[in-house]
Amino acid sequence: MYAELMVDRPVADLLGDWDILDDLVSKKFSRFKRVGDGILGIRRRMLEGNQVVDPVKGVLPQSLELGPNGIHAVGHDILTLRMTTGGTPHRVPHNFGFWHINDMDELYLTLPSPRPGEPAYMIVIMQHPEGAEGESFAEYCEVCLTLMFERHYNTGRLGFEGFFKANDEAIIEYNSDSKFRTCPQCGHLNPLGYTWNPGRDTPETAAARLQW
């Protein structure tokens, strides 16, 4: 994102002042937070073999991306930088019940746990959108992958602060009428959607979270 950074203090002093991996700091980024021109998210999750275990949501499958050849899974390799390019629908089953489509690239980096038995650090970095740029909450038919529903949030103009409210509103609207969940191509009735936050679940969306 930046070719050069200039600071007026020794780097060692800065690191001593503000360790992004310190628990007290990383917790502030659990729901994403804007930092300058970027947006940063940090998750503490256990890595058990190829499985990612969230302390609230349990075992999470691999992330999914939807491309020209259909759905494919992507892993969380330690110390490997991975990118989801802007415009690519992506989601994590049981974590968020919609396809997120970001106009901006998203970078993912998994850092190992500092000590055996402790959670690893899963970091998401993206540039804050500008102007008409933003992101969508979309639903595709689980059978034929036809786009059935999409609501766009103009992050560049409205700010990232309203992202989660926009997500709540999009999922509530999608779940409000079975016509949104009925595929216009094949007629399949798809399951309910759900947001990132399981604390927002109803009994019905909690059941959907377990389903897909």
Topology:
Layout: H1 11-17, H2 23-26, E1 33-35, E2 38-48, E3 51-54, E4 58-60, E5 63-67, E6 70-74, E7 81-84, E8 90-91, E9 99-102, E10 106-111, E11 120-127, E12 135-140, E13 147-153, H3 155-158, H4 163-175, H5 178-181, H6 203-211
Antiparallel strand pairs: 1-2, 2-3, 2-11, 3-4, 5-6, 5-8, 7-10, 9-12, 10-11, 12-13
Q: How much β-strand is present in the residues?
A: 25-35%
H-E string: HHEEEEEEEEEEEEEHHHH
General shape = globular
Q: What is Rg?
A: 18 Å
Structural class: alpha+beta
Query: Low-confidence parts, pLDDT < 50 over ≥5 residues?
Result: 1-5, 14-18
* Assembly category: single chain
- Average pLDDT works out at 88
Helical amount among residues, as a percent range?
10-25%
Domain unit count: 1
Tally of individual helices: 6
**Total count of strands:** 13
Largest sheet: 7 strands, antiparallel
User: Ends: how far apart?
Assistant: 34 Å
Brief descriptors of the model:
212 residues; single chain; 13 strands; globular; three-stranded antiparallel sheet; 19% helix
Q: Would you mind describing this structure in some detail?
A:
The protein is an alpha+beta fold and 212 residues long. It has one domain (19-211). Helix content is 19%, strand content 32%. It is built from 6 helices and 13 strands. It has helices at residues 11-17, 23-26, 155-158, 163-175, 178-181, 203-211, and strands at 33-35, 38-48, 51-54, 58-60, 63-67, 70-74, 81-84, 90-91, 99-102, 106-111, 120-127, 135-140, 147-153. Strands 1, 2, 3, 4, 7, 10 and 11 form a 7-stranded antiparallel sheet that branches. A hairpin with an 8-residue loop joins β10 (106-111) and β11 (120-127). The longest helix is centred in the last third of the chain and has 13 residues, at 163-175. The model is unreliable at 1-5 and 14-18 (pLDDT under 50).
